[in-house]
């Protein structure tokens, strides 16, 4: 079999698909070869086995413990990748995966005490790591705070209960914005709440995964509480479908010869801005991993959440990954 993309050389057959919540499914894959990965890492998946549409998903299984390689996918209403994987793919189909990627893994950030923070589908790498830690580092003290909308949105609910019962060193706290259901704490995460769950938070490795907005809040709280930056780790990839952080203010994006100008919201990604104005841009993974959306900004104010495929010289010259570049002020592209 020929891989659809050189980035995704690993064919895996779908063994089974199970629904976790109303909008999350787990695909269990049979891997015919050795597939090396660390708990918490992710893989790119070739969507519809095409060369130019790749999406990043966490490997929710745990190496050495899980029977299958598993992907847990939240269906996004407009998500071409998540809709295909959760609604069209069937057992027996073959998916093509990249090698495992990313540094959001407890293996790369060893500690004997963790505070794991997750919101929504961000719990998938956290489960992968917790399952692995209790089996391989049983002396480890792990506190997990998991933000959900309602009890029905808890992914891996039964497994969490079994793991916490069997391994008292793993403590899970569920928290919901608005709920009167038993088993759920009401409210938002705050500095006092983090201190209550983990009074020794500055001694712990903190790992957070959720929406960009959620992680910004968590990072601010952890900084406020004195967690050293070297002990704070967050999942770095986001999809443009999750661009909820764009503001009502707008900026000017200037492009090409002859120069054209477009108004785009402050905070939107360069990729979202280009696509909104139907400007040609290649974007295979939309996750700051494949490098296909490399673009040069000659002047402007922006931040980046991934420069994974760029060299220091390219970054110096103004190259960015459009999917991982947030426009903060007027900008001009080469
Ligand atoms: S689309 Fe892959 S890095 Fe941007």
Automatic annotation (TrEMBL):
Q: Which GO terms describe its molecular function?
A: 2 iron, 2 sulfur cluster binding; metal ion binding; oxidoreductase activity
Domain 2Fe-2S ferredoxin-type per the UniProt entry, residue ranges = 249-334
Keyword line? 2Fe-2S, FAD, Flavoprotein, Iron, Iron-sulfur, Metal-binding, Oxidoreductase
Q: Which domain of life is it from?
A: Bacteria
**Record-linked PROSITE patterns:** 2FE2S_FER_1, 2FE2S_FER_2, FAD_FR
A Pfam short name: Fer2
Q: Which NCBIfam families would you find in this protein's record? A: PRK10684.1
| Name listed for the protein in its UniProt record | NADH oxidoreductase
Q: Which organism is it from?
A: Serratia oryzae
């Amino acid at each position: 079999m020929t891989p659809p993309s050189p980035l995704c050389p690993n064919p895996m057959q779908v063994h089974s698909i199970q629904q976790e919540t109303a909008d999350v499914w787990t695909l269990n894959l049979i891997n015919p070869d050795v597939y090396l990965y660390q708990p918490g890492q992710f893989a790119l998946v070739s969507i519809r086995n095409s060369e130019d549409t790749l999406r990043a998903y966490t490997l929710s299984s745990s190496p050495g413990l899980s029977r299958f390689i598993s992907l847990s996918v939240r269906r996004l209403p407009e998500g071409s990748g998540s809709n295909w994987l959760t609604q069209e793919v069937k057992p027996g189909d073959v998916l093509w995966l990249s090698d495992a990627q990313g540094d959001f893994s407890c293996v790369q950030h060893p500690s004997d005490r963790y505070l794991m923070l997750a919101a929504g589908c961000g719990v998938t790498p956290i489960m992968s790591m917790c399952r692995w830690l209790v089996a391989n580092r049983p002396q480890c003290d792990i506190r997990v705070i998991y933000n959900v909308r309602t009890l029905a949105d808890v992914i891996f609910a039964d497994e969490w209960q079994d793991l916490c019962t069997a391994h008292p060193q793993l403590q899970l706290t569920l928290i919901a914005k608005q709920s009167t259901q038993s088993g759920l704490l009401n409210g938002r995460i705050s500095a006092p709440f983090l201190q209550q769950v983990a009074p020794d938070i500055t001694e712990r490795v903190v790992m957070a995964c959720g929406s960009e907005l959620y992680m910004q809040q968590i990072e601010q709280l952890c900084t406020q509480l004195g967690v050293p930056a070297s002990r704070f780790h967050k999942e770095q990839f986001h999809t443009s479908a999750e661009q909820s952080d764009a503001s009502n203010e707008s900026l000017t994006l200037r492009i090409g010869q002859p120069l054209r100008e477009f108004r785009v919201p402050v905070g939107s990604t360069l990729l979202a801005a280009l696509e909104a104005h139907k400007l040609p841009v290649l974007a295979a993974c939309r996750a700051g991993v494949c490098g296909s959306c490399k673009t040069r900004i000659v002047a402007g104010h922006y931040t980046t959440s991934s420069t994974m495929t760029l060299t220091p010289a390219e970054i110096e010259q103004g190259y960015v990954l459009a999917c991982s570049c947030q426009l903060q002020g007027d900008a001009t592209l080469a």
